[in-house]
Structure formats: C-alpha cells, structure tokens
C-alpha cells in the first residue's frame, strides 16, 4: 500500500507536530499506511513535549515534488554490454524502445546504443571481424555446443566456399580464424591441423570421431548448427558483443531523484527521445522515454493545521492532497478533485482530531492522548487565548483524565521549556515561528515568539528592528514580531520602521513605539493577523 505523509506547516509548533502524529496513528488503525513528518525545525516546546511522552521526533520532509522515481519510466530496461547484437535488437523490440542503456556486470552504465547505430554498423561495419563470446554464438545460431575451450571468441570470419582442393592449396588459415563449413572432411581436417579458433559446422552435419579427437587435441572450439551456410554467414555477425558497436559512451542521464520540472527543461534543451536513469552510484535503473514523462504518480499527503500554500511543503501543487484538517481560515490550497476537508472554529487542530477518534471508536493510547493535550494547551495558551472554545476545554479535560496530567502544572512547565531564547541570535528568534501572508499585491510576515524573557530582547532591541527592516527591504510591506508572555497574557510588538502607521491603525494606538506592550493580545489567528490585514486592505 502506498504511503501517505501527514504534516503541518513550515514552522512546526506543538499543535501541528502533535496533530500529525495523532492523526497518523488514527489513520493507520483505520487501515491506511501513513507516516507523520515535519517540514521545518521543531521548537523547544515541542521537543519538550515529545521527550516527556517518549515519542520520536518525526522525520523531515524536504518536498513533495514529482521526481523521476515517481514517473513510470522503463524500469530494468538495460542490457549487459557483453550481450549479442541480436539479443539487444530483440530486447529493444520487445520493450518498444529505440535505444538501450548498456551496463557492466556491476550494473554501472557504460553507454547507450540506438537502433540507428546498430543498423549503421551492420551495413558499414567490418564484415569479417568477430568479437564475442562462445555463448553468444551458440545462442545466435541456435547451435549445439560440441567443444568449448574459450569463453571469448575474437577472430576473423571465413566461409569454406571454394572447392576442397582449391581451399586446401590456396587459403592460408590463422589461429584466430572462425570457419563456417559443411560436410567437407579435408577442409575441416586442415582447419583443425592449423588450430583455428572456432569451427562452425552447418546443415546439421556431424564430425567423424577422428576429427573430434583431433579437435580436442588441438583445442579447437566447435559448434554445430542446423542453419545452412548462407544463413549462418548472415547471422553470425549478430553474435558480436553489442559493445563492439560504437556507442554513446557518456549519454545524458537523469538521477532517479531528479525533479520532473527540472528534467523537462533538460529534455527541451537537448531534444533526445530517451535518457538512461541512474542512481548516485551511476547504477543504471532503466530508460526514460520522453512520452513516459506524462505518466507519473503524485505523492499522497494529508495536511493538518494549515491550508495555505505559502505555509505548506515545497511542491505542494504537485502532490495528491487526500485530506485537510485545520482550524484556521480558508486560504489558497486547491485540489483537482473533491477531498475530505475538516475545519472547525476551535483553538487547536488536536481538538478536531480527538473528535475523529471518538467518531471512529478508536481507543487513544497514553502517549497520543498526552500529545493531543499538550497541543491544545499550547494553541489555547492554557485556555487564555481568545480562540479557546468550550469544546477545547472539554476535550482537554477528558485527555487530562486519561493521562492523569495536571493541566496547569504541565502547561506551565511546557511553556517554560519552550520560552527560553538564551544563546539565540535575533534572526533565530524571529525565524522560530513566522508565517507569510498576502494582502492584494502586498506581502507581510508575522512572527510570534512565546517567552518570559522579554528583557533579553529589550536589551538588544535595535538588532531586532534591523532584522525586520532588512526583511521588509526584501519585498515585505509589513514585518512584525510579537513577543507573547503566556503568564502575563499579553504581547510586546516590534515592527519594521515603515510599518509604524499600519500598526497604529491595526490596534488603534497613537504614536506607537518599538516594544509596546498590549494586554490580552495573544492570538495570531484572531488578533495579530486579522487586525493587520484589515489595516493593509484599507490602504490599498
């Protein structure tokens, strides 16, 4: 069963991480194959929660872009370069490909052969040279092994077309000769006496025992075939190693993890119809035809705690979104087909997921119950946030009873663990939990930091303002940082200098200053973002 990845937004907080883990557990119990992932660095608070409940940190998911390994390319359409020309030709026809990657015994790509190059060699190549293996000749001529002393046959082809007397007196045989002959005793004896490389006896004829004894003594390879002389002479060159043809030794290749969007640019640039697919060790995995690029499988994903493209994983447009579970306003995620979309005006995504457990009658284990409780307490700021609903409180109470965890004490310890900014730079503090938003053609970025150490920020206030001004210079109309103190239940505001008027209008403040404290201002979803967006819209 194909795996589905479940993840929250790019700046994973406790709610998004715990929601991913809790939902993955539920989906797996219901028969799906899912895995919780994160698409950003986990913060200290979330790390504390995971450690407290002894739950492993989800793995990082870099992107969900379509890669070559998602494309239905011609897997295992490769051939050892010691195979015969005939085998290569038949293999290409069977797989309907105009080219074929050639590999060595370890699977390493050694080149690319095309039908055009095969045809050119058969018409213009040296008709007399044979460079192949005994096994290839046997296979090509549908022959019978009589005597084999050499695995490899490198020699010059000859056909016994003269009369026996003329052949014996006029033809000089060499040790590397490969002689095609019928039932002609004297010619065969001469060839065996001269210790040629290989004797091919055609027409179903068999040698006398004295000739076989001579062949054994002189170590002459012998093959029988039912083909007549002309057909044997016509087919024998098809036994040559495919690598004996001049191949493209360094073809343009694509790695199995290359992105489809990027390889399409290369395909349009070079215009070839086929490309070998390799891995990091240059082991060839198959062949990609240009027509294959239109048939691919999208990665299955479920989004929690967000439904905005800017907050989601890289390449979300290329993924197959199965479901969204969120408690924010509807935004820019779109799908090509109907999906399950569960949205509720509650304080935490995990409140919704708890309801899903109830609806599906799935028992909640201790660690999952603890994670969901922590997520609700985090997102509702222990019920102090204006986003808190009675449903959140009700669910948190039930989870507290399941886990025997004291809500106030655990919540305080959790926030304390996550609030420290000791040793962090202003950039690192700002980037802990920021989100981007669009208002018309304008952009804004809002960071919210939960800490009880505002004095540390105040001592370096100018550095924080510089970070915001620099960010605004990169194309943001508004860059704001809210430093929220959960215990005091309010936030300090730092903003880029040019956003002063917008901040004043957003919160109805005269002559706002950097680091101003506003009591009861704690919710990004209900207070921080909406107020600023409305002020920006009025100025459009």
Low-confidence stretches: none
Would you identify the CATH architecture of the largest domain?
Alpha-Beta Complex
CATH class of the largest domain: Alpha Beta
Whole-number count of domains: 4
Mean residue pLDDT: 92
Shape: elongated
Helix content: 25-40%
Radius of gyration: 37 Å
How many β-strand stretches?
24
In which order are the strands of the major sheet placed? 3-2-1-17-18-19
Provide the β-strand percentage band.
Answer: 15-25%
Q: Report, as a whole number of angstroms, the end-to-end distance.
A: 50 Å
CATH homologous superfamily name of the largest domain?
Answer: inorganic pyrophosphatase (n-terminal core)
Annotation field: number of helices: 19
Major sheet summary line: 6 strands, parallel
> What is the CATH topology assignment of the largest domain?
inorganic pyrophosphatase (n-terminal core)
Commentary on this structure:
This protein has 540 residues and is α/β, with parallel strands linked by helices. The chain has four domains: 4-65 and 299-418, inorganic pyrophosphatase (n-terminal core) (Alpha-Beta Complex); 69-123 and 244-294, CBS-domain (Roll), CATH 3.10.580.10; 143-226, Udp-n-acetylmuramoylalanyl-d-glutamate--2,6- Diaminopimelate Ligase, Chain: A, domain 1, CATH 3.40.1390; 426-538, Diaminopimelate Epimerase, Chain A, domain 1 (Roll), CATH 3.10.310. 36% of the residues lie in helices and 22% in strands. It contains 19 helices and 24 strands. The strands form five sheets. The protein has a six-stranded parallel β-sheet with strand order 3-2-1-17-18-19. α1 (14-29) runs antiparallel to α12 (366-379), α2 packs across α14 (407-419) and α18 crosses α19 (524-538). The longest helix is centred in the first third of the chain and has 16 residues, at 14-29. The two termini are 50 Å apart.
């Amino acid at each position: 069963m194909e795996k589905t990845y479940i993840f929250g937004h790019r700046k994973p907080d406790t709610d998004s991480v715990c929601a991913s883990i809790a939902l993955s557990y539920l989906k797996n119990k219901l028969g799906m194959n899912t895995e919780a992932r994160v698409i950003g660095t986990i913060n200290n608070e979330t790390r504390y929660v995971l450690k407290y409940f002894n739950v492993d940190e989800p793995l990082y998911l870099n992107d969900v872009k379509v890669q070559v390994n998602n494309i239905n390319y011609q897997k295992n359409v490769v051939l050892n370069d010691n195979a015969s020309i005939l085998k290569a030709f038949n293999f290409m026809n069977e797989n309907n490909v105009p080219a074929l990657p050639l590999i060595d015994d370890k699977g390493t790509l050694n080149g690319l052969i095309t039908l055009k190059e095969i045809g050119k060699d058969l018409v213009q190549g040296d008709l007399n040279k044979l460079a192949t293996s005994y096994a290839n000749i046997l296979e090509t001529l549908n022959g019978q092994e009589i005597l084999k002393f050499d695995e490899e046959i490198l020699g010059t082809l000859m056909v016994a077309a003269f009369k026996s007397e003329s052949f014996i007196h006029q033809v000089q045989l060499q040790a590397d000769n490969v002689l095609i002959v019928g039932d002609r005793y004297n010619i065969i004896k001469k060839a065996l006496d001269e210790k040629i490389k290989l004797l091919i006896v055609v027409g179903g004829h068999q040698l006398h025992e004295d000739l076989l004894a001579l062949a054994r003594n002189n170590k002459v390879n012998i093959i029988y075939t039912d083909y007549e002389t002309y057909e044997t002479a016509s087919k024998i060159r098809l036994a040559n190693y495919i690598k004996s043809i001049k191949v493209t030794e360094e073809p343009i290749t694509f790695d199995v993890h290359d992105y489809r969007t990027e390889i399409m640019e290369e395909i349009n640039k070079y215009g070839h119809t086929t490309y070998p697919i390799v891995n990091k060790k240059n082991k060839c995995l198959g062949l990609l035809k240009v027509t294959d690029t239109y048939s691919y499988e999208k990665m299955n994903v479920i989004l929690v705690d967000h439904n905005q493209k800017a907050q989601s994983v890289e390449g979300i447009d290329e993924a197959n979104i199965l479901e969204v579970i969120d408690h924010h306003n509807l935004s820019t995620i779109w799908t090509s087909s109907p999906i399950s979309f569960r949205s509720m005006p509650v304080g935490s995504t995990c409140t919704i997921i708890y309801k899903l457990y109830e609806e599906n009658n799935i028992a909640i284990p201790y660690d999952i119950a603890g994670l969901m409780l922590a997520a609700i307490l985090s997102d509702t700021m222990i019920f102090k946030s204006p986003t808190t609903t009675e449903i959140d409180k009700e669910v948190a109470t039930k989870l507290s009873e399941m886990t025997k965890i004291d809500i106030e004490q655990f919540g305080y310890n959790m926030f304390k663990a996550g609030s420290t900014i000791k040793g962090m730079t202003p950039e690192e503090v700002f980037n802990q939990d920021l989100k981007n938003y669009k208002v018309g053609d304008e952009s804004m970025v809002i960071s919210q930091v939960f800490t009880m150490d505002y004095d540390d920020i105040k001592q370096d206030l100018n550095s924080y303002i510089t970070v915001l001004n620099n960010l605004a210079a990169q194309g943001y109309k508004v860059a704001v940082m809210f430093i929220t103190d959960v215990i005091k239940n309010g936030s300090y505001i730092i903003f880029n200098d040019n956003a002063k008027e917008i901040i004043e209008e957003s919160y109805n403040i005269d002559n706002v200053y950097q680091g101003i404290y506003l009591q009861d201002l704690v919710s990004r979803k209900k207070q921080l973002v909406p107020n600023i967006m409305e002020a920006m819209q009025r100025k459009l």
